[in-house]
Specification:
The protein is mainly β and 367 residues long. The chain has one domain: Glycosyl hydrolase domain, family 43 (Tachylectin-2, Chain A). The chain has 1 helix and 21 strands. The chain has one helix at 14-17, and strands spanning 8-10, 58-64, 77-86, 89-97, 102-109, 115-122, 134-143, 146-157, 165-176, 184-185, 203-212, 215-224, 229-237, 245-246, 258-266, 271-281, 285-295, 306-310, 326-330, 333-340, 352-359. It is globular. The relative contact order is 0.19.
Length: 367
């Protein structure tokens, strides 16, 4: 079934973050800075091939640094960003790196560049709970009846000093009255979880949410196998407080080695764009780039239709790590938030949040 802009209502990651309703507007006197010069050439350390096309984003550097969050909530890092706009204000959920485990933190902004940190909005669950090790990566979904929050739960973490969430990951649920919460966990609601023998046997963590007619779809991060294979799956529901049905086949073939998602619909050419995070392999596995896939039919994605958006060739401050994408359309541009790490390390900690830009209307690159 081919869908156009008229057939769907935007949800999750806020309407603006998925393109369409509520497109963000920058202050008129505060245009984005010009793109930085091209980065110096660097050898590509990954043994995995990249797409042969590029849809270049113009990077502007770090906009939120870790280390000064309330109560030490991001003492060892800030990463895994979800950004959106609501009533002329910018909001950002990010994972605060903390030695005892990563909580979901909130920051707000008037312009998308200067951010005020508000500290954790979700804390870790009690021992034995599915979010005892991490309650992070929170994707908000506004509805007329209230706000829903889908977040990543991990039962354990690596412990001090890094507290990195340990897989398997599960998608959990909370609800609240508005974009700042307060969020109340719903332990009786588990939208979907890893299932043995499936493409999400080792991980099923949240992703972009849209509504099509009376049905919601969530494009979630899936992982299975040994060695681990990663892709994006799709789950569907008619009740955000109920169970979800996971499609038997993933959106993209298992083994694309991508995880997480942000969706954008370009009305000018009736094209969907799925931004995702590529996982590279060198001496260790690490997130090395933001890729984008595109289609005119939301039900069918050709894995050949993909391009590199951001990597160490157009992001100079982070030489190897380019983490999870989040997008906010802003008039004739798209703000692309991501996490990176100064220098050439591939560590999970020490990360900061960067900002890059793409032009609108967005079009697939030529071969």
């Amino acid at each position: 079934m081919k869908l156009t802009r008229r057939d769907f209502v935007l949800a999750g990651v806020a309407g603006a973050a998925l393109g369409g309703a509520g497109v963000a507007r920058l202050l008129e006197h505060d245009d984005p800075p010009p793109p930085r010069p091209a980065c110096p050439p660097r050898p590509e350390p990954s043994v995995r091939p990249a797409p042969n096309r590029r849809l270049e984003a113009a990077d502007t550097g770090v906009v939120l640094r870790h280390g000064d969050g309330p109560g030490g909530c991001d003492a060892v890092g800030a990463r895994d960003v979800v950004a959106w706009r609501y009533e002329d204000r910018w909001y950002m959920h990010y994972d605060g790196g903390r030695a005892t485990g990563w909580p979901l933190c909130l920051a707000t902004s008037d312009d998308g560049r200067v951010w005020t940190k508000h500290g954790p909005v979700l804390e870790l669950g009690p021992p034995g709970s599915p979010d005892a090790g991490s309650a992070s990566y929170g994707i908000p979904v506004p509805t007329p009846q209230g706000w829903h929050l889908f977040y990543l739960g991990a039962g354990s973490n690596t412990g001090p000093p890094e507290g990195v969430p340990a897989a398997p990951y599960v998608t959990l649920k909370a609800h609240g009255p508005g974009p700042m919460g307060p969020w109340e966990k719903q332990p009786g609601v588990i939208p979907f979880a890893p299932q043995p023998g499936t493409y999400y046997a080792y991980g099923a963590s949240p992703g972009a949410v849209i509504s099509v007619g009376d049905e919601y779809s969530q494009f979630f991060a899936a992982a299975a196998g040994d060695p681990l294979q990663r892709t994006v799956g799709r789950a569907r529901t008619r009740d955000l407080d109920g169970p979800w049905t996971v499609d038997p086949q993933p959106v993209l073939p298992i083994g694309e080695q991508v995880e997480n998602s942000a969706l954008y619909f370009e009305q000018d050419n009736d094209t969907w764009f799925l931004f995702t995070n590529h996982v590279a392999a060198a001496e260790v596995e690490y997130t090395d780039a933001i890729w984008v896939y595109w289609t005119k039919d939301l039900e069918h994605w050709d894995p050949q239709n993909k391009a590199v958006v951001l990597d160490n060739h157009n992001c100079c401050w982070s030489q190897r790590v380019i983490g999870l994408p989040s997008i906010v359309p802003v008039e004739d541009r798209i703000a692309l938030f991501y996490d990176g790490l100064q220098g050439a390390s591939t560590s999970h900690v020490g990360r900061d949040v960067g900002l890059a830009w793409l032009p609108r209307p967005l079009a697939p690159p030529r071969e």
